[in-house]
Design goal:
The protein has seven helices and seven strands, in the order ααααββααβββββα. By secondary structure, it is mainly α. Helix 4 (107-130) packs across helix 7. It is globular, with a radius of gyration of 18 Å.
């Protein structure tokens, strides 16, 4: 009970601060408080630090050079303020693995938790930094040029950012693990697993974004977009499946990359 109270106390404070800084919507703040409290309860300091590390780094990047990102808002389904669905799409899988670790004490689950945040961080860093690339992105499947901000597009800068985002979570995991449990021979091995699978998850996200994620044509704006409607009027589905919006793609790639841990552990 003590861990639950501590977890919720800290997560509520962080959620309130994020809401005031406009990083989270009201529903996003409530979801983040719930997610953070349960994450600390089930996964302890290690899982909680990964969640906080992901949230802070991704939030800072979201608002970095925001003036240069305004022109791509018409393509994205959601803006910079994360709502409840976005919070759980990025952190729900990590919470599930943290809970499994709590009940089983199987270390593979805490590695899966770390990979889930590695994937979420890699995807976020790639999106937020990649759109600042001077070169137009290309489709990961066809190699054709795409509009900045559209899912499935990749660039050299965005790819490096994805690798950096995954490496950040892998390094954070390793440092906190050593501080809590001490150094052992598996630290480097786990670092590599989290780094590689987190990055691979971002690649999977791009593949799903380029293939099955819903894209629409907005007649009023005369543009392709991920938004289902514009000013209350529905846009026309021209690619992918309506079920697979950005949140569904995010959680799907998160699950796939995290489950890969069990292929080698």
């Amino acid at each position: 009970m003590r861990n639950l109270i501590i977890g919720f106390a800290f997560s509520i404070l962080i959620a309130i601060a994020a809401y005031k800084k406009r990083s989270l919507s009201r529903s996003g703040a409530l979801a983040a408080a719930l997610l953070g409290g349960l994450m600390y309860y089930f996964g302890g300091v290690l899982a909680a630090v990964l969640l906080v590390g992901f949230f802070i780094s991704s939030s800072l990047l979201t608002f970095a050079k925001g003036d240069r990102k305004k022109d791509i808002e018409k393509y994205n389904e959601k803006g910079g303020r994360r709502d409840a669905l976005q919070v759980f799409a990025n952190g729900g899988v990590g919470l599930l693995f943290a809970a499994l670790y709590y009940f089983t004490k199987n270390p593979a689950y805490i590695i899966g938790c770390a990979v889930s945040f590695g994937e979420a961080n890699a995807d976020t860093w790639a999106s937020e930094i990649g759109v600042l690339s001077k070169k137009t992105p290309i489709s990961i499947l066809t190699g054709k040029r795409m509009e900045r901000g559209m899912s499935g597009g990749v660039s050299f800068l965005g790819t490096l950012a994805a690798l950096g985002g995954s490496a950040f979570i892998a390094l954070l995991f390793s440092l906190v693990y050593i501080l809590i449990y001490g150094f052992d021979g598996k630290v480097l091995y786990r670092f590599i697993i989290i780094l590689l699978f987190g990055f691979l998850g971002a690649v999977i996200d791009s593949v799903l974004g380029a293939s099955i994620q819903a894209q629409y044509y907005c007649q009023e704006e005369n543009t392709i977009t991920e938004k289902k409607e514009f000013r209350g009027k529905p846009n026309k589905l021209i690619k992918g499946f309506a079920l697979f919006n950005n949140d569904v793609v995010n959680i799907s790639s998160n699950i796939l990359s995290s489950m890969m841990v069990f292929l080698i552990i």
